[in-house]
From TrEMBL:
Domain of life: Bacteria
Occurrences of domain Insertion element IS402-like (ranges): 8-76
Taxonomic source organism: Hymenobacter citatus
Classification lineage: Bacteria, Pseudomonadati, Bacteroidota, Cytophagia, Cytophagales
Pfam family, one: DUF4096
Protein name: Transposase
Length: 121
């Protein structure tokens, strides 16, 4: 596990940058924008509190929101998971899934129907 924020390496950006093809409104380095989003996610800081080494917070948030709205984050996550599995020598997609369930007791004074746990029968 990595402690603190780490910017993308060149090899990481080579893969991710090819997946972030997007029409840009202004001349910004998308690598810096992506690193700024990683910084916010890792440190939990507010958008407005981004250090001045990154692009303006409004531009970073604009791209974050566009990527979220268009589903680019989900596609990026899917492709990176597939690539990581292939690198490990496994199949691109999992062939087996395990779902666990657990019953939760409610307070005795609650008498309305809450549904059924699939594991209890």
């Amino acid at each position: 596990m990595v402690d603190g924020y780490q910017p993308l390496t060149d090899s990481q950006w080579q893969v991710i940058g090819s997946l972030l093809l997007v029409q840009r409104r202004r001349r910004l380095c998308l690598r810096q924008v992506f690193n700024a989003v990683l910084y916010v996610c890792r440190t939990g800081c507010q958008w407005r509190a981004l250090p001045p080494t990154f692009p303006a917070w409004t531009a970073v948030y604009y791209y974050f929101y566009q990527w979220q709205r268009t589903g680019r984050w989900q596609r990026l996550n899917h492709v990176l998971n597939v690539l990581d599995r292939l690198r490990e020598g496994r199949q691109a997609l999992p062939s087996l899934a395990c779902v666990d369930s657990q019953s939760v007791r409610l307070a005795p004074r609650i008498f309305e129907h809450r549904g059924l746990d699939g594991a209890s029968a």
